Amino acid sequence: MGSRESAAYVPVSRVRRRSARAQAPESPRAQARAPSAPRRDLVDWTQAQLADGRHDGRRRCHRAGQEGRNAGRHAFWRAQEAAASSARVLRGAAVQPDPAAAVEGPRRAGRASGDRAQNEAQGRQAPGVPGIRRPQGGGQGLLQELGIYLLSFDRPGYAESDAHPARTEKSIALDIAELADNLQLGPKFHLIGFSMGGEIMWSCLKYIPHRLAGVAILAPVGNYWWSGFPADVVEEAWYVQFPQDQRAVWVAHHLPWLTHWWNTQNLFHSSSVKGKNPIILSKEDTALSQKFLDRTYKEQVRQLGEHDSLHRDMMVGFGKWGWSPLEMENPFAGAGDEVKVHLWHGVEDLFVPVQLSRYISKKLPWVIYHELPTAGHLFPAADGMPDVIVRSLLLGDE
């Protein structure tokens, strides 16, 4: 009896495992009808393939972009080497009547020098003094009368002149001297600078005065942070500007790295000059503005983009200078009356308030100041005004 009891005892768990193994498998049709969980290894493999596809796509895009950048760099350096073998790409100050940029003219020293004889033979003038670009009206007669050869060129980042991200107010003056040497203009020459180019003339007076035979500064941009300006003068000039121009100038000085974004964003009004807002035109400027609108070269002026041209000008012009024009001594003190510096500004100028130039003229008695009561910013383009400026600079006419 004891043996039967021991033989009959089987744990329940063992019975259940045996019965599970003893069950017959379902038919293929039943298996097809029953929902089944996906195989884990198949899911992992599919996800891995998708991830590899995404990574491969990213790698291909990155590789294509890198190849494009490398090709661009190689083309750039090939062009640089070719240019270096023939002529230096110009960098320098603007001398044309454009409130924002330099305009047409010789781009490379070799080409400008080579074209001089051809220009003279064909009776053409080299573009240069504001408003005197082609043989029209009295400009050509004045050139022939005084035997003047005029030359203009593009500042860094404009038209065909290379961008120069590290440029300063000093580097531009040195570029002008180097350009004059490349063109064999002689030991001394006259300079005329307008607007941003006018501000550059102060740098030329400081760094290359020994190369200058005379300077005309036309409606120059002024830096509100130059030392030597009284607070009331700065405040008066500051509030002549429109609010959007105040903000643009403030950003260029305090947050230069934000200048490009500020002048291209659409959240706030950016610079009136950059945006060509007509509110910044005085009565006389409105009449003269068509001359600028009709320029055939205006699309070429900023072909390298606004960041390396106009915005870079703003960062340098309104940036932190290590010196101030108001603290300059007369660089021609030992030259008698041979070298003259003329400063011209219109009272109705809304691009560049006249108050800064007016105070500079009082602070620097060696500067001959011409204040035009009804003129705006574009006065150098007015009929007959180029002749007046040139005669004043070269002949001392008032």
Written description of the protein model:
The chain contains 16 helices and four strands. It is an alpha/beta fold and 398 residues long. The model is unreliable at 1-7, 12-17 and 76-138 (pLDDT under 50). It has one domain (92-395): Alpha/Beta hydrolase fold, catalytic domain (Rossmann fold), CATH 3.40.50.1820. The N and C termini lie far apart (145 Å). Strands 1-2-3-4 form a four-stranded parallel sheet, sandwiched between helices. Strand 3 (341-346), helix 15 (354-363) and strand 4 form a beta-alpha-beta unit.
Structural class from helices and strands? alpha/beta
Radius of gyration: 36 Å
Helix content: 40-55%
The average pLDDT is 73
Count of β-strands = 4
Instruction: Give the tally of structural domains.
Output: 1
Ordered list of secondary-structure elements with their pairings:
Elements: H1 2-8, H2 12-22, H3 28-33, H4 40-86, H5 109-121, H6 138-146, H7 169-182, E1 189-194, H8 196-207, E2 212-218, H9 231-238, H10 243-254, H11 259-262, H12 283-293, H13 298-301, H14 307-317, E3 341-346, H15 354-363, E4 367-372, H16 385-395
Helix pairs in contact: 7-8, 9-15
